[in-house]
Design a protein that fits this description.
about 210 residues, mainly alpha, globular
């Protein structure tokens, strides 16, 4: 694949990924609660989901979801339920955490739990499959082998996503150092409201698309 096409793909992906969504929102929250190092576990989960999404696009899963109301609905409502669950948990949080700079890593949350949380948020969002299935083929030459073209796109997409999430996690950690305990409550409420709103948006996605 020509480097110019990869650069163009990276630029477009950056604009899209930088728009606040569930995974970058979790990176922000993880950075504020657990510090940048622990938040990296959540980022790894989101990056793993990127490769799943690209592989699914290459195998035609996005087209299947677009054509099948049953499969689309199953994935969509799983995503709605999980986003709403995470949002409600943040809204119910008391905001009482131990800041990383105080010598602790915040509320008990294993790296595995943070990994799975971000991974599940991404793979239960049918909009991700539909977007990748519509976006990536524009940079694929139909007459050439497919997977050698998808592989660099997947790598660029994942690295772009990782960079954006790292920036959000770092911002969360910095904000928490400035606002301290009061900031934890404020950030939990803001992230909770946004996640619940995203769940509502996802619930209405099919209706709006038709």
């Amino acid at each position: 694949m020509h480097p110019t096409n990869l650069l163009l793909f990276a630029a477009v992906a950056l604009v899209i990924i930088a728009t606040p969504g569930p995974t970058v929102l979790l990176a922000l929250a993880n950075g504020s609660r657990h510090g940048l190092a622990r938040a990296a576990c959540g980022m790894a989960g989101a990056v793993a989901s990127d490769f799943v999404l690209v592989a699914a696009a290459g195998l035609g899963l996005g087209a299947l979801l677009a054509a099948s109301e049953l499969w689309f609905g199953m994935v969509k409502w799983l995503g709605v339920a999980y986003l709403a669950f995470l949002g409600v948990m943040m809204l119910r949080s008391a905001g009482s955490i131990t800041l990383p700079m105080d010598g602790d890593t915040g509320e008990a949350a294993s790296g595995r739990a943070l990994f799975l949380r971000s991974f599940l948020v991404a793979i239960t969002n049918p909009k991700g499959y539909l977007f990748v299935s519509a976006f990536l083929p524009q940079f694929i030459a139909p007459g050439e082998p497919q997977w050698p073209q998808y592989a660099p796109l997947a790598l660029v997409f994942a690295l772009t996503d990782l960079s954006v999430m790292a920036a959000y996690a770092l911002a969360g950690a910095r904000v928490m150092r400035l606002l301290k305990a009061r900031g934890a409550l404020w950030l939990d409420r803001a992230c909770g409201v946004t996640l619940v709103s995203l769940a509502g948006s996802l619930a209405l996605y099919r209706r709006a698309a038709t």
